[in-house]
Amino acid sequence: MRKYLFLAYPICLYVVFSLSVVPLFALFYTCGIDLIIANSLGTLGMTLTYLFGKRKKTEGLTAVPWRSIFLLTGTMALPVVLLSLLLTIKAFGSIDLTTYLINCTWSFFCISLCEELLFREFLTVRMKTAKMPNFLILLLPALLFSLCHRPESVSFLLQRFILGTLLGYLYQKGGLALCVAVHWMYDIIIYTFHTTLPYVTTCYSAARAALHATLCLLSLFIMVVVYCLNKSKFA
């Protein structure tokens, strides 16, 4: 049983750093600062703890592919930015653009990097070392990933479980860089949809907001397929 204790590592980090940023949440809320930024600081702490702790002791891991992460994310962002300019440009004049840009660049990068390092890389490598079944290697990290997001309902639990399963599959097929890039862009697309929805509805229509989000997700899917089919060329 002791050889499976590693499964608790990501959860323990989440508990410790979630509690440690509670004062920041209170301070940011009082000052009117977006709470996603406070959350990103907690995930930054988890990432550094893992990178300079467990990851250094884990055999068989190469260096974090920073260059590939940023190149892939930038490539995936191009069609999303173009679609946003074409379909919803008027709405961006009504939102807090500074907070939006900080979250899209800094916050979601920290969050996606942390979660992919812990739930995809760490758990996948350790579960394979423990010779656990392949279906568990795919599904168990996805379940832990979903539970650590403190889902408010069964639908949110399922949504994040499905996302975690897909990211787990992408990790096995395309590696860490692809997972972080897809996770980062997915968060940006969903965040943009929720942030601009009232203003897109006012300036255009609700159908335009839905079309924008759908096309952005479709472009992300196409980019993933193209990458997986031509991984050697991207590399």
Please give the structural blueprint.
Blueprint: H1 9-20, H2 22-31, H3 35-51, H4 54-57, H5 66-88, H6 97-129, H7 134-147, H8 154-174, H9 176-203, H10 206-229, H11 231-234
Helix pairs in contact: 1-3, 3-6, 5-9, 5-10, 6-7, 6-8, 6-9, 7-8, 8-9, 9-10
What would your notes on this structure say?
- The structure is a single chain.
- The protein has 235 residues and is mainly alpha-helical.
- It has one domain.
- It is 81% helix and 0% strand.
- The protein has eleven helices and no strands.
- Helix 7 packs across helix 8.
Low-confidence stretches: none
pLDDT averaged residue by residue: 92
- What number of structural domains do the residues give? 1
* Global shape: globular
Secondary-structure class = mainly alpha
Sketch the major β-sheet.
none
Distance between the amino and carboxyl termini: 40 Å
Order of helices and strands: HHHHHHHHHHH
Number of helices: 11
Helix content bin: over 70%
DSSP strand count: 0
**Rg, Å, rounded:** 18 Å
Features:
mainly alpha, 235 residues
